[in-house]
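Quick check before the chapter quiz. The format below is the same one you will see on the exam, so make sure you can read both the input and the output lines.
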Amino acid sequence: MRTAAAIQRIACLCALGLLLQGPAHAAASLRPLQRDGYDRLQTVSDLELSPDGHRVAYTLSTPNRTTDRDDGDIWLVSYDGSQHLQLTSSPANDHSPRFSADGRTLAFLRDPLDGRSDAQIWLVDLPGGAARQLSHFEGTIGSFALAPDGRRLAFSAQESVHPPPDPDKPQPIVVDRLQFRADGYGFLGKERSHLYLLDLQSGESSALTTGPYNELQPVWSPDGTQIAFLSKRGADPDETNNWDVYLMPAQTGAAARQITRNPGTEGDPDSEWSHRTPQFSPDGRQLTYEAGGRPQDAWYALVQVGLASITGTLESTPAAALDRNCVDAKFSRDGRYIYFRLEDKHSMVLARLRLSDGQVERLSPAGHVVTEFDVGADGHTVLAYGTANQPPEVYALDKDRLRPLTSHNTQWISQVDLGTLAPLDFASPDGLGISALLMTPPGPPPPSGWPTLVRLHGGPNEQRQYEFDFDWQLFRASGYAILGPDPRGSTGRGYAFQKLLFGKWGQVDVPDVLAAVDFAVAHHIADPKRLGIGGWSYGSLLTNYVIAADPRFRAATSGAGMGNMLAGYGTDQYVREWELELGLPWQNTALWLERSAPFLHADRITTPTLFLGCEADSNVPLLGAEQMYQALRRLHVPTQLIIYPGEYHGLDRPSFMVDRITRYIGWYDRFLKQTGAGHD
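Here is the expected output.
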């Protein structure tokens, strides 16, 4: 007999099924999503409000078939939404717009798409005109900030090697660093990123810092006398991930002073969240930044709103009681609030902290994702806001109302049948509550359920969220239900939930994944005879753990992952994290062997598996996919290995993105849809 709770869950699922299917007449008037829809997908990013709050600058990126790269241009939209202006239109990737203090000019980074030239800082007069190049730096510029006086800018850059290497006469690579590889760079040498001052009138630049440390993400004090930045120092900076906030006078040769002293990570620049930290308060007396947790927690620590005085005498995390990741902190213009993005159970909302009493107010609703925001004069607030069936667009937040300012994707999206996401809640075998997001195909479910793909997120400290995912939408258009569980270790549920996975990869999260599948099968969502699974990065690792533990999946895709943890030590960039979580291999060998179960017990895998990897990946090197492919090939399990040349951990070429989803669907179709397909 079903319990009342079970009956309620089924009723909720039935209601959600009707919601996901949508009105029959609406679906009939729309066309299915096709692969070529990827070429029409435009992405908004780098939101920047003008000093008076009346205009918003942003980057609009579009896949470029000719260059096979994303082509970015700078756009302007008025805060009232009445005026739209494309400022740049170049055969390059223009991004990171920054207004001058008087709002009369806009600086930005222009990154040539030829793969040979360095990105440089350019300037354009407003409301529009021909852009002119400001910097002529021989090296890689990472970020920059305009001074309040409008005469200077500070930037962080790594100088090029001199003399430049001759590709016809390569020299030996000498390795002597503890961390000698990084994704996106390859082998690391002695070069570091330092701070530079650029005089806008003369075009001359001078070094602000030198030494064996990286200095990144400069920001000016409101009075233009000091620069705050991130740096990781110590006897050997490679030993830790202890980034801190530093402060120095805006003068060549001046000494830098350490502001934060927490042994954790303050604004890890390798994080996708930390592009805007640190930030000054309007009076210049405080700094906000992203505060990390205990070093021994590694990537399981929460990211918090950090607050410090410029004297270095006060350091706090005023929103710690939220027990959630809080990122992209920025002061309001009046200094009364700190705005930030708050991650919470599949959502990413905009929130603000009132400094007078610590009260936190959520400004945008759950069930969506805020990818960026900015706050300016007169309380004007803009954000990039998206949902499962709507790619992010720029919105203004007027009190409690979201008002659209852009509609770059609206026309083509409105003609396509797209799915939405429904949340599922269930229990793992040990009773722990787990959640997932579900997307189903149009129309009523078959009696036995839909062919279902379990898609596992990376991280492992990430979450499935209410965001537009082209792959998921194309899976749906191909007739699949997609199930995305958040097993223990995922974010959005607090520190304790994240830390449950520490040192237990594939041990405690596999039952959570299987519980999601059991729930979907029991409620006739998923056809138990047509189950697929897959993921990228940690999603690939977890896929390997799952198919080594359970034979029910008829097809799997495993991208940029591994099954042999021992093979990762010394070949990837995680020199510190592995030692923190698993210990040294020669001292804690048993645990390393346990975590290497998919490779060492590959003879338990019967699921046909498509492996994929990136040739230049230093995050999870290609070696991991090669080993798993070789094992299954030797065992005569249907398998294939796809290698993307020249790519790092994440695919950059649009053609490769389309190729990957095409191969995913082809592999799943082969084993889940064809008559007689599958395995015993």
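If your answer matched, good. The chain is about 20% helix and 35% strand.
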